[in-house]
Structure formats: C-alpha cells, structure tokens
Amino acid sequence: MVLFTSGSESLPKAVPLSHKNLIANMRGGIDHMNFHRSDTLLGFLPPFHSFGLTATALMPILSGIRVVHHADPTDARMLARVIAAYKPTLMFATPTFLQYIVSSSEPGELDSLRLVLVGAEKCPTALYERTMAILPELDLLEGYGITECSPVVSGNRPGNNKPGTIGLSINCVETVVVHPETHKPLPQGETGLLLIRGASVFNGYYKHDKPQPFLDFDGHRWYNSGDLVSKDEDGFIQFRGRMKRFLKIGGEMVSLPALEAPLAERFPADEEGPKVAVEGIEQDGGRCIVLFTTQEITVREANDCLKAAGFQGIMRLDEVRKVQEIPVLGTGKTNYRQLRAWIEEANEVTSDS
User: What InterPro entries does this protein map onto (predicted)?
Assistant: First the structure.
C-alpha cells in the first residue's frame, strides 16, 4: 500500500507500507490499548492518511470491535449527534477535530465516550482541561505517530497516562534520542532527535531522488523522524517540536510551535477552524516570523501575550497578518507550507520593489 505524507511542511512524499509493516503496527497498537469486546468505535478520520486508515478502518477489522462511520470529519455538529445516537465508547481524533466536536456538542451528547486517543499534532493543555471538565471519567490519551512508521510509535495507556507526554513506545518499535548533529545518544531528560526502528518502519520513499531518511546508529539502520523529543525516567516521551519548525537566529533556536501555543490558548480553535498560526523563514540579515490570524490583534498585543507567557528577546513576532481563514489540510492540520509560501511571496515582492 502507498500512502502520502500530509504535506503540512513540505511536498507530500510517497510512503510504501508493506503488509508486514501494517500488521505489526496494528498488533502493537491493540496490545497497547485496553479494548473491550463491548466497545464501539466512532470512525471519521480520512482513510487517505495513515492514522485514519489504520485506526478507524484496518485495526477494527483485526480486533473485531464495532465501528460507526461518518464521512465528514469537519461536520462537528453532526459528529456530536452521531455520538449521542449511537453511543460509541472509543474515538480516535486529531486535537483539531476533537476541539471542533467539544465546541459543537450539547450537554450529555458525548457521555458514552470512555476513551479518546488524539494524535497527529500536539494536544493543547487548554483542550485537555476543557474536555476533562466536560467528561471527568474519560481516558483522554495522547499518542504520536508518523506515516513512515505505519503510523503509531508511542502512546499513553489507560491507567498509565502522563498528560502532556506522547506516552511510551509501542512494542513493535524501539526508540532512541540522539544529538541532532553528532547523533550521539543523549542522557535522560535532554532534548534531541528521535530515531525509530522496528517491524512497522518502512523501507524508503517511492521514486524519491533525495537522500532517504535513515541513519546508522549502534549497528542498526534507524528512521530519522525529524522530531525533537526527550524521555523521562519512566520512558515517557515528551514531544518538543519538528526540526523544520525551528529557525536558527543568531546561533539560537527559535521554536515556532512554542510561539504559537500561548496565542492559540488566547484564541482557541472552534468548529470553523484554527484562529491563529505562526510561521517564519530565515532570510539574509535576519528572519521573518509572522502571526496569521482571523482575529483583531496588533503585533504589540501579540508580543505582549508572548511576554506574559515568559518569552523574551528573540522569541517574538515580526508581523501580524489578518486572513479570512487559516489554511488546513484534510486531516485538520494547519497547512504551514502554504503559510510559508505566502511569507516568501510577500518578501519577493518587497525585495523586487
């Protein structure tokens, strides 16, 4: 089977996944979770992405649990009504789609849910707290996956959950954290590059004329995720960000997701989509970091919000651009590649003039 990466940060790449890859990942995922024979899953994630394909299409077949399908993941009001009518107990979602559903639901409509696993993007603390306030008995778990790994790599488990982390590695993979430049292993708690190996990891992109994303380490070939993480004393993984979502400014690393987080808390996404997104580029003589937003806010107000969150110095915005809507992909992820293209186009026009 050939799936494509989401294309949120660069052009989509073709990822061939073998029968062995998919079966290993689904077995690892099923072993990791606590499914009951009486469970019913709500399936609405798009099957053209790995999370939707494996979690809501293939895995239910392998595990034998019932599924209620709904075709439109953006129809949050209907999804809330489907939950109220069919009373599913399980749901896999992205934080964006969960935000839509929570925002659109009426009191009592979501009460049948006992376990929700979110992945594909970081779960905001505000969303976690809001969901748990509505459903205090819910197991709201965060996990991590990547198309090239079929896709699940790690996840929190019922009864063994550390909110704010992406959980423990599932049993079909090994993970290690190394220095991003030297590729030497890092001690517990230090942030570095996540490497992955195991039966669910693919063998390379299809018809790809650039270097394949593998590193030799400790006598084995490992997949280079391009993600920055740390591990705590119990092996729980903390997601720190994408390497591509960092800018190097004056020798310092600026995290674009970190700048976006407090603004997203001030202007949370709803059923109409995200309200804010931060993207930036490095350029000759400096950088250009832009807040794209559907809201009324000035650069000064936005930077004051960042200061209140503890950011200072180079951790600031250079510009705010008001837009009608934040571009998103079919998975609900923000389309940062489109935002970056807008910045580059505007800078080209400025330099030409």
Answer: AMP-bd_C_sf, AMP-binding_CS, AMP-dep_synth/lig_dom, ANL_N_sf, ATP-dep_AMP-bd_enzyme
